[in-house]
Each structure stands twice: as structure tokens, then as C-alpha cells.
Amino acid sequence: MVTIKDVAKHAGVSVTTVSRVLNNSRHPISPETRERVLAAIKELGFYPNAMARSLQLHETKTIGLILPDIANPYYPGIVRGVEDVAHEKGYTVILCNTDRSRERTKAYLRVLREKRVDGVIFTGGGAVEDASREHFFDHGQIATVVIGRHKADLPAVQVDNVQSAQEAVEHLIKLGHRRIATITGPAVSTTARDRLEGYRRAMEAEGIAIESAWIVEGDFEFNSGYQAVGKLPLQGPEKITAIFAHNDLMAIGAIKALQEKGLKVPEDVAVVGFDNIPLASFITPALSTVAVPVYDLGVTAMRVLAELLAGRKVPPVTVLATHLEVRESSLLK
């Protein structure tokens, strides 16, 4: 392995001079000497020791991104947004997929500490709560930004899940639906609780009494939406005529179950989802859904983190706008 001493010998300069060139030191170095050092670095294929450099500069130029399920098509957009800004600002991203496991979250938190990352971005899956239990935020040593609404007193980038869900359900009510069911996320999820609150507000504003049979808990996955349909009243005078699912995966699962039962969407049951994942516009019928600016969530979170790392003040909460993308699953042709 080529060392800094090898570069110094090849260029005919001291190790200190090579170090000054690598770190763009303000110490005066002649253009000829700088070119000779850079040429030696290129000829020998030398790469600086990142760990040694980080100890000297007190930064590693790395950040951790903790997310619950990389297989969920909601999250790659966030990852891309974080990555794009991180790259622009010279940071490397360490991706940590927890699979919604507290043990995996603990393991990743330990690794990020050991690697001395400069900052961490959390998104979804209860990881913030797990990190709080592990006292990850106690000493404020690692700059942190969260995507979503959390109890932790940390800078947050989020959408208004209550208002967005309310608007989705109001859309169904305006179409004449009153027996509207909802397939929720896990009860422990802040996102799910907020979207359920939006559903309740829309129904109560129209004087619609919500029946307990209309609320079925899922887990944000395809299969839970599919299974939830089997628990809803679909026949007789008590049948529901619309479903608001807390995310698109469950909405798509619900549509499949409805179709297998011989019911037409939206003629028999209208369906609205949440997130606007790429698949939403390609299924049949195309899914009406709340469009979340996932890429912008990632971009904004990384920009806020960069501001923190630069020692600048950041807003406690940044809220990005959503909009309802109306498609075939809720509108009759």
C-alpha cells in the first residue's frame, strides 16, 4: 500500500509538504512544488487515509441515513434526495435499513458512533423512538435531523399528515360517499395516528358517525391491505362504498382483494391511497392518492443537516406541501 512517505520521497519533498497539499493548507507552497506532489500522488495511485484525516480535521464527511424498509417504494425517493445533496456537499451516505427491528436499529446506532459519522438522518419506522431509548441524543454529539413528526426535540422535515388525510377523505365525501372505511398503519406509528386523525376530522365535519367496523389496522404492506378487505362490511345495507388506505401499498393490496371478490373499483368501492409511489399510476385502475414530495423530503433533510454541521441555526420544523392526485380508482368514467 502506498503511503504518504512514498509520495514525499517520489516528489522529493517532506511529508509535511505532502500533507499541506492534501489539506489545501494556507501555508505557502510554490506552484511547482504543488504540481510535483500532485503528479507523484497520481503516478503512485495514492489515496489519503480517511480515518487519519478525519481525526485531524474532526470530521469524517460521512452521514448515516436510517430507514425502516428499503423494499418499500416510498423510501428510494428520499434516499435519492439525501444522496444528491450529500454528494454535492462532499459527504458520503451510510445507508442503514432497520427492517423495523429495534435490535437492528441499536446495532446501526453503535456502528455509526464507532465510525464517527458527522450527522444522522432518521426517517420512519420508529427508529427515532428506539434511538431515544438508547440515549443516542443525550449529549448532542451527533447532528441529527428527522423526517416525519416525532416527539424528540430535533429539527424535523415533514408533511402535514392530518390535513393531507383529511383532504383525501373529503374528496370521497364530495363524490357522495358516506360509508368510508380506512385501513390504517400500525397503531404505534405517529404517521398512522395522524392520518387516522385526518380521517376522523373529515368524517366528523360532515356529521358522519364512524362505525368501529370501518377501521382496520394494517402494517403499511401489500398483504395487510389485502387482508383488511376481508374484515370490512362489503355486502348488504351496511356495506362500505369507499376505502381510504394510509399508504399506497395497502391501497393496492385492497384493490386486488376487492377485484377477487368480484367488486369493481370505483363502481362498487372507491379507493384512495397515500404517498403516490411510482406503481400507483400503473395499476388498473390507476390509484387516486395523496402525493408526497419524497425526493424533496430527502433533499431538504440533507440541506438542514448540512446547515447544522456548518454551525448555523435551522428551523425546528420544515413542512412540505402535498397534493391529491385524482385518478381512476375514485372517479367514475
TrEMBL record:
Coiled coil: none
InterPro entries: HTH_LacI, LacI/GalR-like_sensor, Lambda_DNA-bd_dom_sf, Peripla_BP_I
SUPFAM superfamilies on file: lambda repressor-like DNA-binding domains (SSF47413), Periplasmic binding protein-like I (SSF53822)
Molecular function GO labels: DNA-binding transcription factor activity; transcription cis-regulatory region binding
Keywords recorded for this protein, A-Z: DNA-binding, Transcription, Transcription regulation
Keyword Transcription: yes
Gene3D superfamilies named in the record: 3.40.50.2300, lambda repressor-like DNA-binding domains
Any one Pfam family match given in the protein's UniProt record, by short name: LacI
Domain HTH lacI-type: 2-57
PANTHER family the record matches: HTH-TYPE TRANSCRIPTIONAL REGULATOR GALS, LACI-RELATED TRANSCRIPTIONAL REPRESSOR
Name of the protein this chain belongs to: Ribose operon repressor
Native organism: Neomoorella humiferrea
